[in-house]
Amino acid sequence: MEYAYVKALHIIFVITWFSGLFYLGRLLIYNQESSQKEEPEKNILVKQFTLMTKRLLYAITWPSAVLTWFFGIWLVIMYPGWPIWLIIKIGLVILLSLYHISLDKIYRNQASGKFAFTSFQLRIWNEVPTVFLIAIVMLVVVKQNISIAYGLGGLLIFILLLFSAIKIYKSLREKR
After folding, report:
1. Which of 39-43, 104-108, 158-162 has the lowest mean pLDDT?
2. Comparing C-alpha atoms, which of 24, 23, 35, 48 is closest to residue 119?
3. Residue partners of 8: CB distance under 8 A and separation at least 6
4. Looking at residue 144, what is its pLDDT?
5. CA-only gyration radius of the chain, Å
6. 48 against 82, higher pLDDT
7. pLDDT above 90 (res 133)
8. What is the dihedral of CA 152, 158, 89, 66, to 10 degrees?
9. Which pLDDT score is estimated for 162?
10. Where does 35-83 have alpha helices with state H?
11. Where are any strands of DSSP class E within 30-176?
12. DSSP label at residue 80
């Protein structure tokens, strides 16, 4: 019974972590786009987006990440053995954590007035957690039944479709 409660809490914090990551990317894009506007609109929007990003990052996203790791480690301790899917999942979660750290760095740079990335670059970077979400959920749910070739192939096709959609969106925005 303890396993079920720990697993439920792990899933809850995974959901809140991903929600935060998805919205953080959007806020960073909006903040970057605001930095291109004329005063006084620029000053007002940049201040507001910076504040919103800070609150989301430090009040929701980081605590969710820490609790996801906490309950995840607890589950690993209770899970018998280390099957290959679990090792791959842990590797993906480490990469997701590095992605999270990169968002924190982008936020800190933007908060200090350094807007190093274009809106298009941030839009591409904003899709990274979607790829992780699909890979991790498929891995955990399908486990041993997944073919590595089909799994990687499907993920690559999804990434190509996602990148194509971003490019199409960029062309439509530039036409306006």
Report:
1. 158-162
2. 35
3. none
4. 66
5. 18
6. 48
7. yes
8. 160
9. 79
10. 41-55, 62-78
11. none
12. S
